[in-house]
User: Fold these one by one.
Assistant:
Number 1:
Amino acid sequence: MTAAIVRRLLRLAVIVLIVTFTTFLLLDATPGDPAVWKLGINADPELLAQTRAELGLDRPLLVRYLDWLGDAARLDFGESFFTEVSSWTLIRRALPKTIELMVLAEIMALAISVPLAIAAARRPGSWIDRWSSGSAFALLALPAFILALYLSYVFAVRLGWFPTIVTDLPGLNEDPLENLRQMFLPALTLALNLVAVYLRLLRSDLIDTLQEDYVMLAQARGLGDRRIMWRHVLRPSSLNLTTAIGLNVAGLIGGALIVERFFAINGIGQLLIVSIVGKEFFVASAIVLLLTVAYVVVNFCVDLLYSVLDPRIRSGIR
Amino acid sequence: MVRRTMAAMLSFALVAAGCGGDDPATDGDATSAADGDTLERPEGTDSDVAGDEGGADDGGDLEDPDQLTSEGEGQAGADLTPVPGGEVTWGLTNDGTGFDTTGAVAPGSIRIITALTDPLVAGTPGGGWAPNLAESLTPNEDFTVWTITLRPGVRFHDGEPVDAEALVANLEAFRTGPVSGFAFTAVDEVVAVDELAAEVRMNTPWGAFPFILINQAGWLVSPSTLGTNDDFVSTGPFMLESWTPGDGARVVRNPDYWREGLPYLDAINFKFIPEQPVKRQALEAGDIDGYISPGDQDILDFLDDDGVDVWIGEASANEYAYILNTAVAPTNDIRVRRGLAHAIDRDLVIDTFRSGLTEKASSSQTPGSLFHHETDYPDYDPELAAELIAEYEAEVEPVQFSVKLEPNPAVREVVDLVASFWEDAGAEVEIEEIGGGQSALTAISDDFQVFSWFQFSSIDPDGDYPFFHSDGGSNILNWSNLVSEKIDEGLDIGRANADPETRRPGYATFQEALAEELPILWIDHLNGIEAAVTRPELHGIGPRDELPDGGEALGMINGSFFTWTDVWLEQ
Amino acid sequence: MASVSRWRAVTPAGRALRLGTAFWLSVAWIALLVFLGVFEDVLPIRDADARGIRTGEVERFEGPGWNAWFGGGPQGEDQLARVVAGIRPALTLGLVVTALAALVGGALGVTAGYARGRIDAVTTAAIDIALAFPALVLLIAVRSTFGNSLLVFIAIFTITSIPPYARIVRGATLALAEREFVDAARSMGASTRRILLKELAPNLVLPVLSFAAIGFAVVILTEGALAFLGLSIDQVTWGALIAEGTGEIRNHPHVALVPATVMFMTILAFNLVGDGLRELTAPRTVATVRRLEVEGDRVAPVGEPVLHVHDLRTTLHTPAGPVHAVDGVGFDLSAGEALGIVGESGSGKTMVLRSIVGAFPLAGVTRAGTVDVCGVDMLRAPRAVVQHTLGTCVGMVSQNPLTALNPTRRIEAQIVEPMVVHGGLDRKAARSRALELMQHVGIPAPERRLREYPHQLSGGMRQRVTIAIALANRPQVLLADEPTTALDVTVQNQILELLGRLRREERMAMVLVTHDLAVVHGFTDRVAIMYAGQIVEQGPTEEIFSNPRHQYTIALMGSIPDLDLPSHSRLKTIVGSPPSLTDLPPGCRFAERCRFADERCRAEAPPATGPARHGYRCWHPGVEPPVEVGRGR
């Protein structure tokens, strides 16, 4: 067990190294000079050189990277060139909102897609199957920015149930109701795009499982449909869904970006794109590092969940 | 129109460079030189610039802003007495990047700073200036020394006194600042002469000097905090409570504000909302109380809406224009420049992208401004345009060039249309977006032929000095590389004098030379589409503010001076 | 093997699949798009770049109408022309990226999943890196370096799309590689490539195809999001049109909504076509209990048999048409009596059992006739009553112990469940009864086994567990569907002995379905021979063996079941194959393969004849004791 964990940690370290270095490389490849942006173009060359030196931009990429890495190992991720705020502060402010957004979105997506998938799998081809997958596709095929505007218009401007923007978000522990009220529409926007994927995956896996012998035998034993579905079918059918949720961690950041812009949430998505466009090596790399660790950790949890869901994996059969 | 996203993002980067997204003028130095307005640039220009609808009004210049409010609040509280209290949430189009007054301050930051500070000088209607935080500014005979006297008893938010020492520290920091210094090249030194007064000594006569103190150069911060980027300890009606990059800031009432009984509001929450439709829905839903509209669409839609007040700017803003590089072919030939100028149907551009709300420009001075001079700037004449191009092509070579622009979809649409005019006149045009994240300023300092540009305009035409004066060809900010004696002469006259009657002929010469030589093809003055849209309960946003010594100052929506001092909320 | 046969087999002849209107509408939509995309330059539509404000043809934000069908854009562009211009980039991007990513990702995934070891480790690590890395960073960097041409975007999208495919395929490969048929192929000395191509690839097509449908949508949508961020391709795309219209959505909704609708319909169409194609390659409609239909009236039993089946007709409604899986089957079974049902694969013998319990793997089943179990009409009684009867009166043991137990639940939960649900026992009582049962069926260390999962048990042990579950509520009828076929020979005998013992001890009636005559002999009291959905001969076991009347039975007696053959292989000793159940001949169903068949056999179905205790359906019943009818191997 320990060996397995050590192996995983090693692997995580390698992945983090590659990913963060790639970030440095890619940012270095993009045109533009942070020193020029900071000083303006009329700054004389001497000053530019001096600023570059201050920002550490005059040194070779590899040296800069190793420096950053060394600092990062001491949990110092550098600061933004422009705002001179530390990466960690920026991330700490942005992260909780994005995490909440993503977790809420996943919960909502599952809350919508699981019952629909079950209903659809019970009667493939029925109206509920057709309508659920049709509507899910409509939602999938609707760009998030249109969805955000319409949801906001209907539920915030017209009905006034939720705010159009997230301002001064209270912590979940301080005022959970207000927090959820503000995060509801953003999370829903993000969730609705996921529903189709989850619904489709789970539905087809449920249908596969429904054809297993043991399901037929459960029916032959006079067990009710509902019991069979929830106790016998759902769990073995949820492996692919779990995988998809794990894989989504990185993908959701892209979706979160749009949602964050449309509900004025200063989350990680916005911070990331601003950092990339602004060639903020340190901030961008810190975020990428964070996302990588998050991805690996979540997928580690997914693996653990696998073995909970399917005992065969526990004993290494699969 | 739409798609501001990227624009807004870019503006972050560019702006950091010194304001540049759209208005190039802005780089720290450059701009500062541009004049008082300097480092600032109207919010939202990037985003919007495009709009629709037609129907310009007469070119008559200052419209009565009252006409444009949707309800009877025009007189900003004429029949309403201000009451203290209340909190306001204000939408920001651009994110702030910090508060270092010696660096390039981003538009988003400036919006916040306007609640935190009182500049030394305020702009007044009609193009003049008046002392604001300063008690007085007096020049010597030949405008080579200006004496600034401060008001007694004023303190910074941290309790430090606002005295000559602090004034010198701030102005010296600005003069020597790597980014800001360019605006103060005419200043030799700043010296305290007594407890509350300091002399600004020039190396050349500078009659328009006070204008530069309307903005960044005129902000005073507590000397101990000079050069800090994450805090702003100044003299203004509000104090910075918190600032979160990417999100906004919260400012609270300054209980010890030096102007009695002001401000009215308890706090203002500045909230960064990058998406225009979202700002709009947030206003409709009451989640925010107002914002500076970045485009014509809001103005049009909200004018008929009793639930929203609209305040349109009347004075200095940007001009949209195309800079022609007079050092390279084919734009080094006046026939080509003239042909390109004649080819553009500016009315159609204005109808299409500004809903007819802006006016055609022929210089940085709006038709209503003190120094505006009528010139025979080439108007739309497609036949003549084609003729001129054909003539050049017959003699020299086919007219082929590339237009560079920042990667902003809204600007791109305009460039597409303008390019289609040029192609109709016979030119072969390639449109080239500068790389994502590349500063427009960087791009324009490289080789270019034609560049889509937002020229930063100022209350006083002296602001044009750094961009058009050739300095014998050594001025790198003279983007078009045109060396024109007439232009230099006109600008020099304007700078060396303070009497408008003496300066006017100088600027007339300057504007005539611009129309003749055409280093820059003007499209329109953008002030017509810069407006504040607010909930009607919010008062005092209008075009005028009251000066501490009585009299009117330009208000929030008129160019750069924008104060929250007398804004109040109906309870 | 079960799942393989599920996919590969059961594609009934003809493939006359009805794909449905939605499918054809989708095909038509895609065809229209392709047509417009290909011929956009020669079609009489306006220039997509033309501005109405200059040409005067279209007004700004003109509403959709005769002049401009899709309305006008912000500069009076003809939105129809622009939407058409967006077809090429959309289809090119969507299809090329999806195809490339699926191919490359698929190849990587198969290699990693099949080769395992180091190759797998490296590939998975690479996949993890790629998936963890925010694609946005890559996109912005690459775009600013290489420009925003369609080609660059295809490259970026493909690169970022490969990892998910690789990961999915790898997972599927890992799972498939353990399946028996791959092992079988491997042990038979098939080359790696052959296994990959012939055995794995066909089974991977489905998951990939299913993922690709979503993948296609995601590519098109991502382009839209990028267009919104101003980061997309340097040409008119649907995403760009929608993004452009977003700001106008309140005043001029058509500017955004028309291209959004076109995009939506395209995504939907590709998904529907994908689904349809999937159905084509693997037609399956699926178990839904509610679709069980019942026709006809009940016929009351004579006497008091525990199990009474009369004129049972089961029709499966498949896409290929109705399948008459069980066609007029009847038998009675009293307590303690054992009936063997013998037949080839596909003869309907398993279907008889399923018809009794009403559990089918296929959707749309109609049952007619009578099935009484313990006096309850299993076809017409209320659902709850039927379920209770199934839970208390019937026990069922299925063919493959490997698939008969839920792999994700502990043995204990599975044994206890019927006792708690139907037996009225509490958990504790159920548990002690479970222990008792485990001992009863001969499982050593039952305490420990109860806590284990099915995969921790051997095949024989698992079958004992399924028997224990079947016995949980002391059923009066035990239905055993080839209970020994999947087990190896020594275990087979143990299980048979166990079943025999249980029958005697519990006085259960038992139906034993098998293709193995040897199993039937000496174990059952009576035998029913099934052929093409009918019982062609039924009688006391001894009599059937000593004096078979139906020519099929006679042929069967002559063939020696080969234990080495996989369970579903046909008895090869009888030449030919049974008729299709969808297209039955009018006469005797065995006629095609019968040496004695004549005109009447082919024209007229033989009625059930013979004495009540030994009936048969044959025009030429054999009279001689069967000697050497079959030709052996």
Note: Chain A touches chain C through 84 residues (CB under 8 Å).
Number 2:
Amino acid sequence: MSVTVSVPTILRPQTKGEKSVTAAGTTLAEVITDLDARYAGLGDKLVRDGALHRFVNIYVNDEDVRFTGGLETSLADGDQVTILPAVAGGDSSALVAGGASSAMVAGGSGVSG
Amino acid sequence: MVEAIVAHARADHPDEACGIIAGPAGSDVPTRVIPMMNAERSPTFYRFDSLEQLKLYRELDERDEEVVVVYHSHTATEAYPSRTDIAYAGEPQAHYVLVSTREPATQEFRSYRIVDGVVTEEDVEITRSTAP
């Protein structure tokens, strides 16, 4: 079971400059574990506290995995996994309460269990 | 291109506006302004819609282009990267342009590199557009 993973510029230091790599697994979680075994440190850039990191978007073929089961998304042989940096930000300092600002960011991340 | 970005920021005010300027890969030359949806539709946060972003990045790949500039607006404060902007900055090759629309009549238009959490402001030189 092998999938192709497209790696964004910012993570290529972890993949020795490779733009496209292959990995094995039947779920996204397994693929990320396999990637981390091949390219040390890559897993930490993709997953934090057991969930997809809010700084990245991961797609299987044309679907954002946040809508297909997150790390549990199943993969078939030959699937195309694409990792992109989440392009996001904003002026949360304009909010009065610091607590409200971090809630805002968490809410914007779309991370769910 | 600067006019297009400022017009986009004004049009979406008081929400933050966002988009990119694409250019040939490795050239560091901005050639095409591509406004993006702010999926958050928020005055204090922006995020590219994830599927629109996937489509954009595939198109850039096919055309052998890359993101040269990432722009967004701040609608109530100065055109300087916020902590959130720095945390999310994921395009080490890009120039991060901020436009502030807090003043109705004038705008700030400033550019930064954001690499590994370090912000460096850079001069903006406005040249005649070579695009058709």
Note: The mean pLDDT of chain B is 94.
